[in-house]
Amino acid sequence: MRVKIANGNPGNWQPCPIPLPPTSLPPPPPKKQVLELGGGSAANLEFVISPTEWTITEPNVKFAPYFKTTVAKLRGEGCHAVVNDLVEACGEDLGRFAPASFDAVVTTFVLCTVQDPERVLSEVLRVLRPGGRLYFMEHVGGRDGTGKRQGEAGGR
């Protein structure tokens, strides 16, 4: 399962529907800056629907070959994301990024794997610009004693 960035994407810019003379058209907005945490294989890039500058962090450098392969494939398919780099970093320490430097942060099944989810979210808030957005998808276990938990344990 992958996250799809759609209408709520801060980089989703629509052209003016009113016909205007070419001299009065507004300039296009700058590309939005997006930081993805733990996106080492670059799997979410195929879902980017508007011009976006994308930076991916990944603590596991063994993802680099998958990252390079995916980025090269998507470049040939007209991907909307301009990929800045795969940065070796964990979500708890985003100190290499300036405060308020991203319009959005994306995480897909990351918060369940980090040592300190609260610190990750604190770092996310630090690097997001005012009005920025966090897009995340997580999978979590059911509470003990619930049917969901029992189903996860194979009905035991």
Please explain how this structure is put together.
By secondary structure, the protein is an alpha/beta fold. The protein has a single domain, classed as Rossmann fold (3-Layer(aba) Sandwich). It contains three helices and five strands. It has helices at 64-76, 117-127, 147-152; strands spanning 32-37, 52-57, 81-87, 102-108, 128-137. Strands 3-2-1-4-5 form a five-stranded parallel beta sheet. The longest helix is centred in the middle third of the chain and has 13 residues, at 64-76. The two termini are 26 Å apart. The model is unreliable at 1-16 (pLDDT under 50).
H-E order: EEHEEHEH
CATH structural architecture? 3-Layer(aba) Sandwich
Number of domains: 1
Q: Assign a percent range to the helix content.
A: 10-25%
The CATH class is: Alpha Beta
| Strand content range | 15-25%
The CA-CA distance between the termini, in Å, is 26 Å
Outline the biggest β-sheet.
Answer: 5 strands, parallel
Using the coordinates shown, work out and report the CATH topology. Answer: Rossmann fold
- Low-confidence stretches are 1-16
Q: What is the strand arrangement across the widest sheet? A: 3-2-1-4-5
How big is the Rg? 18 Å
Assembly type: single chain
Average pLDDT across residues? 77
User: What is the helix tally?
Assistant: 3
**Which term fits the overall shape?**
globular
CATH superfamily: Vaccinia Virus protein VP39
The strand count comes to 5
